[in-house]
Amino acid sequence: MGILGDRTGITRQTPVPTNDMTMSSNIDQITSESTGTFIVAATGAADVGSAAGTIVLFGVDKAPIYNASGTAVGTNQDTSFSFDATDTFDAEIAFDYNKYYQYVGGQTQVSMAAAMDDAFTTDGQYMVNYETGLVIGRKKDTDTTETVTYKTRALQIETTTGSTFDLTKIGGTAAVTAPQAYGIDVTGADSYTTIVTANAVRHHMSVSLQGSNDAIVSIDGTIDGFYIPAGSSHVFDGLLIASSATVKGKNASAGNNYTNLAITIW
């Protein structure tokens, strides 16, 4: 027996399977996925309606293909893989790894599939390489494509909200929220006015001021923290702006209202 119970060797086409036990994954149910147009094994060309009995191959979009429960790489005895219709393929046989190894090396996958034609005894039979997603079959009609259903697994990344991102999923749809909070006060006043509120802990602040009058910016309005000259822009790093804290602005000189004080925090 080789290093694996169902194999006799390790190659580029059939590498050592690995499972990182420090990472978790979710079952990913793939439903009615198109196989795309079959490839005729004898020629390597796209199938344009070849006769019954022709050996063809295709690859699924995601691999490996898992078993019925989604807990281990599948086999023909325990599989989640199926054709949605049985007009072209209806009988799975075990993938012939021993024969496959005879042709692994300088040949293409297409030529290897063609050389395995004597593994099939009747039309409609097919074999699945559950690790790579390769499917080879002997057609029983002239169809050139089918749809398949199977299970695989995707890396699990839980939702994490931080000061710079909110990433909900990897391996599917990722939703990233804007990291910064922004506000603007068009016309100043002599008392502090809230311009922006932090929705998480922030450490950076950008301030720009138009017009001809200066402004004072403060975090929570308790200390006159930043003097902002008219017509200037500034970036302040290394701050500690608590979640829900407010950043406020007021006139630097009573009665001289500033114009367009814009603040961004991140």
Describe this structure in words.
- The protein is mainly β.
- The protein folds into two domains: 25-155, no CATH class; 181-265, Jelly Rolls, CATH 2.60.120.
- The chain is built from two helices and 18 strands.
- The strands form five sheets. Strands 2-3-7-6-5 form a five-stranded mixed β-sheet, covered by helices on one side. It has a four-stranded antiparallel β-sheet with strand order 11-18-13-16, with no helix packed on it. Strands 12-17-14-15 form a four-stranded antiparallel β-sheet, with no helix packed on it.
- A hairpin with a 4-residue loop joins strand 9 (160-161) and strand 10.
- The relative contact order is 0.15.
- Residues 163-172 have low confidence and may be disordered.
